[in-house]
Structure formats: C-alpha cells, structure tokens
Amino acid sequence: MTNTHHDDFKKLSLPRDPQSYADSPLSRAFAQPLMLGLFLPLQTGGWSQSTLPRDTDWSYAYNARLTKKAEQLGFDVVFGLSQWLPKGGFGGQTKYRDNFLEPFVSTVALAAETRRILLLGTIHILYGPWHPMHLSRFLATADHLSGGRFGANIVTGYAENEPRMFGAKRLEHDLRYIQSEEFVSICNALWEGSDNLDFNGRFYSLEQAYITPRPCYGRPVLASASGSPAGFAYAAKYSDIVFVSSPAGERLDDALPKLPAHVSAVKDAAIAEGRQVRVIINPTIIVRDTSEEAQAYYQAIMDYADLEAIGSFSARHTAGDSKSWLEHTNRGRAVGGHIHIVGSPDEVVAQLIRLHATGIDGIQITFYDYEPELAYFGERVIPLLEQAGLRLPVPELD
C-alpha cells in the first residue's frame, strides 16, 4: 500500500513507457525517420475557415474512411481535436466547428476499423468530473481494445469560456499543469498497479484504489500539446509525443529559423528527466502536379476566407492564455494548420526535408479537401519521402 500527501505524487510508482517495448505499436511508429500523422476533421469545417467548395465532412463514416486510407498508406497515427463551443461554433457562413464529434469516443471506435495505426483522442482532463480512476480504466480498456494502439492527448484547456460550461473557473496557466501532473501521476501509479493505492494530494484523494487489467505495453500512449515552458516541463515527464506549434506564424520560411531552439527546449527537458520524446507539428499541405497549380489553389482558399468565423476564432484565442498560434495571420487561418507547405510533390518533399532538419520528428497533416488530397499525397509524395530517406517502406496490410 502506498501512502502519500500533497506534492508526493512525484514519488508514485511508474509503469514502463510503451516505447521501452521493442514490439509495441509506439516503437514501430518511432522507428520512422519522419512520423506521418493525420489530423482528423471530426468537426464542421475541419481545420480551414474558408468557403471554397470541398467535400470535407465531420461525420464518423467520412473520418473512418480517411483513417483506413491513412493506415493503408502507412501513416503512423491519427489524431482528434477537442473543443467546447457554444451554439453555431465560430459562426460565419461555414458555422465553423458547429458539429463536433467527441475525439475520445471516435478514436476508440476506430480501433475496430483498423489494425496497425496509432489512435489518439484529445481529453480536457480538468473539465467537469474527470477523476484519475475514470481515465486510467477507460484508457486501459481502449488500450486492450486496440492492442496497445490507443493513446490520449492530455490538454489543460486555454480558453476562457470553456470551463464556465462546466460550472468552473479557469485556473492560472501554470497551476493547470501542476494539477495535470498530479492527475497523470495517479494514472501512472494505477497502471503500474503493484498494490492498492492510497493517496491524499492537493487535488485528488484515493483510498484502496485499483484498476485492472494492466495496459498491453506498460501504459497507454500519452501525448500533449503546448508552447509554454510549463507545458514543455509537463511533456518532458509524462508524454511520448509532444505536439508543438510554429513559433513564428504559418510561413515555413519564417518558422524554420526559430524551430530548432523551440524543439530543443522540449527534447532537452525530456533528456533532463531521463526520457526521450518525439516532437510533431501540424502542417497544412497543398500539393498539386505543378507549383503554379498548388499556389493558385492555396490563394483560392484564402480568397474565400470566412472572415466572420475567423474573427470569432481569433477573439476566442486572444481571450485565452495559449502560448501557441500567436503570430498566425487571419488569411492563414482560412487555410488552417500551424505551417503551410505548398507546391509540387518534389517541392513539398524538399520543404519537409528542411522541416525535419530543425529536429521535428513527425508531421500531423491537415488537408483542405481531405479525401482526394490524402489519396494524392499517398500516390505522389510518400514514394518521394521514401527515396529521400524520411520514410521506411511499410508492409502492406494482408
């Protein structure tokens, strides 16, 4: 039995990281020089605030097709975003993000549709009645349903209005990470599960707590997203995958000089904890047969910007205390993504080589018109990534 008090959560027992198992799905993904992820459009408008016609859809059936195609193409992971919004989402002509499938539930469901790809669902652990007992059992169950392929993107929530939906006030930025540390430390102790757990902490108390079965590879995969020192310190201790934003807006040429120090801050913090993390970023990729075609499509997306929705999105972000997306332009938000990569297949690969050279370990891609653009990326870009040494060939599914 373990007895702890207050900040002694740091002394709680730890399970093995899934990357320490050579045969884990996470280790398989980490073997790729450049991990490929797909950011699923589980919400109205996906990631782009533009009215240019397209078929991108928030429905589960559409996202299941995307996930199965991504797996077929050898992608390593799919990811779901979480936000809590009032009626109409961000408004505008598109009613951007009005409909919003719960990413945790959706990615659990995708376990039955897939066999190899990692599945990550985002969870605001500080909203509502979440307790570490709930999440540890839910994630352990999802881990078994997926054969060790499931994980959680743990977020603390930056928005000023979201906590009020749950009858709460937003905690100060760094305090949210302190509470999250205690939360996830308890989950880790429950996943390690050597005995019943007694714990009396600053935020949570447990008596004779226990969950079973143990996860397949020590614990489920854990991810986090941040642009702040407090977020990076949390990620260094608890995350396998760390999602960062561009520190200099959406233009690749602006971001590249600042990314090495940004990425190193995360990785150095993990090394100080005796751990290794993989750092990923979200580019929106616009690729066509020629540079001229890609640039024309890129410009058309911006020309059709839903300025009302973008204004609402920007106002919400400004009212929050996020350290990410601080230098993105409104027209850039019409396209979406933290970085824009635009060009012919050869030009896109050249840009990804430059991005990888900053220390970025993977990309979590968004597209404008997802289904045809994902297929085109698989046909025209992935073979070039393999030729460039950024991707290892993935065996075809039986």
TrEMBL record:
Molecular function GO terms recorded: monooxygenase activity; oxidoreductase activity, acting on paired donors, with incorporation or reduction of molecular oxygen
Key word Oxidoreductase present:
yes
The name on file for this protein is LLM class flavin-dependent oxidoreductase
Compositionally biased spans, kind Basic and acidic residues: 1-11
Q: Where is this region: Disordered?
A: 1-20
InterPro entries given in the database record = Luciferase-like_dom, Luciferase-like_sf, SsuD_RutA_monooxygenase
* Stored Pfam families: Bac_luciferase (PF00296)
| PANTHER family the UniProt entry points to | ALKANESULFONATE MONOOXYGENASE (PTHR42847), ALKANESULFONATE MONOOXYGENASE-RELATED (PTHR42847:SF4)
State the taxonomy lineage.
Answer: Bacteria, Bacillati, Bacillota, Bacilli, Bacillales
Domain Luciferase-like, by residue range, is 36-361
On the tree of life, the source organism's domain of life is Bacteria
Q: Does the keyword field hold Hydrolase?
A: no
UniProt keyword terms in alphabetical order: Flavoprotein, FMN, Monooxygenase, Oxidoreductase
